[in-house]
Write a structure and sequence with these properties.
Layout: E1 5-8, H1 9-12, E2 13-16, E3 31-35, E4 38-43, E5 52-56, E6 65-67, E7 72-73, E8 77-82, H2 88-97, H3 114-119, E9 121-124, H4 127-166, E10 182-185, H5 186-189, E11 190-193, E12 208-212, E13 215-220, E14 229-233, E15 242-244, E16 249-250, E17 254-259, H6 265-274, H7 291-296, E18 298-301, H8 304-342
Parallel strand pairs: 3-7, 12-16
Antiparallel strand pairs: 1-9, 2-8, 3-4, 5-6, 5-8, 10-18, 11-17, 12-13, 14-15, 14-17
């Protein structure tokens, strides 16, 4: 097989600046206007109509993008014109393998300089091998995109089901089609409990999770609660309910609940997922919830058997979504491994 060459990015591409979009933006435009986070508008004009790799100049500098159709970019996003020595899609995957944060030129908002990008050295295989590597990695991207679309459809299905099962109206208390459903205060069916500081109980090899508002933050051999519980943030992230049916510890920023025999804990979790928690925010700075506020919220409560059926239906959808999530993570891990081997020449491919 032919030798790979070490080249500067500046030897095979030119870095081009985006432009202000104000004068050309059109809501029904043919072409996308791109920022560092993706599409931000439409236009009937374009800055580039050839395959290009794009990278943030300021702000998000570590999310390369790839375009094969005409586009416009704003000033915070570089685009590239790529020489005939390189396959644009291959260069995109090379960009995805670079740790862009190490090239950050600012102490405040992250920034990249065009000259810095041009100075980066990469390994460049022959054109035919570039093309084959890009095709292999694109196959994994297509599988990931298919799985992500499947996950999105599953999530939309869950939202539709929750709307039907809970009959949510604007106030969340519309008629649910059953005279057996009753209006209850949350405080009538559960108690709110505070978490505790974890410093003295934390253990790297602990059996039980320590939970914060964002999820698991550590482990311990002690637990605060060992029954099914719904958890909700007291401070910080207040709109991400969690459900636990195994022993756990929570820190002070996360409430947990003890739930009476009148309610199925997993049903209450799904009820919590329908509540707009931000409207109960009690602070002007860091979002906060008060236990008394949570206890005062009124919900519709069906008989236990119906609670259980609803919870089972939604849990089945969640289980399906988790399977898809695991598949996506597996595909991403496989792609990372392939990129490490293919883009360094550790594994060569026949063109």
């Amino acid at each position: 097989m032919n030798k790979w060459n070490t080249v500067r990015l500046g030897d095979i591409l030119d870095i081009c600046h985006g432009k202000n979009q104000r004068d050309i933006e059109r809501s029904d435009g043919l072409y996308p206007i791109l920022g560092t986070g993706g599409i931000i508008g439409r236009t009937n004009s374009f800055l580039c109509d050839k395959p290009s790799v794009l990278i943030g100049r300021k702000g998000t500098i570590d999310r390369p993008q790839y375009m094969e159709t005409p586009f416009w970019t704003i000033d915070t996003l570089f685009y590239t014109t790529i020489s005939e020595r390189a396959i644009p899609c291959f260069i995109f995957y090379v960009f995805c393998s670079i740790n862009w944060q190490q090239y950050n030129a600012a102490t405040g908002v992250p920034s990249l300089a065009a000259s810095t990008i041009e100075s980066i050295k990469i390994l460049l295989p022959p054109l035919a091998e570039q093309r084959k590597i890009a095709e292999i990695l694109r196959t994994w991207d297509e599988a990931i995109e298919t799985a992500e679309a499947e996950l999105k459809a599953k999530q939309e299905r869950k939202r539709w089901l929750m709307d039907k099962l809970f009959g949510l109206g604007a106030a969340g208390l519309s008629k649910l089609g059953s005279s057996d459903w009753t209006v209850q205060r949350l405080g009538d069916i559960l108690e709110i409990h505070h978490g505790k500081n974890q410093r003295e109980v934390e253990s790297a090899e602990g059996r039980y999770p320590i939970l914060g508002t964002g999820g698991v933050i550590g482990h311990t051999n002690a637990f605060l609660y060992d029954k099914p519980s719904v958890l909700i943030g007291r401070k910080g992230t207040i709109d991400r309910p969690q459900y636990m049916d195994t022993p756990f510890w929570t820190i002070d920023t996360l409430f947990y609940t003890s739930i009476s025999d009148r309610a199925i804990p997993r049903f209450i979790f799904y009820v919590f997922c329908t509540i707009n928690w931000q409207q109960y925010n009690a602070a002007t700075g860091v979002p906060s919830l008060a236990a008394s506020t949570i206890e005062s919220i009124k919900i519709q409560l069906p008989p236990l058997a119906e609670q259980r059926r609803i919870a089972d239906i939604l849990q089945a959808v969640d289980a399906d979504a988790e399977v898809i999530n695991c598949r996506i993570e597996t595909l991403r891990a496989q792609k990372r491994g392939l990129m490490q081997k293919l883009l360094t020449g550790e594994v060569r491919v026949a063109a």
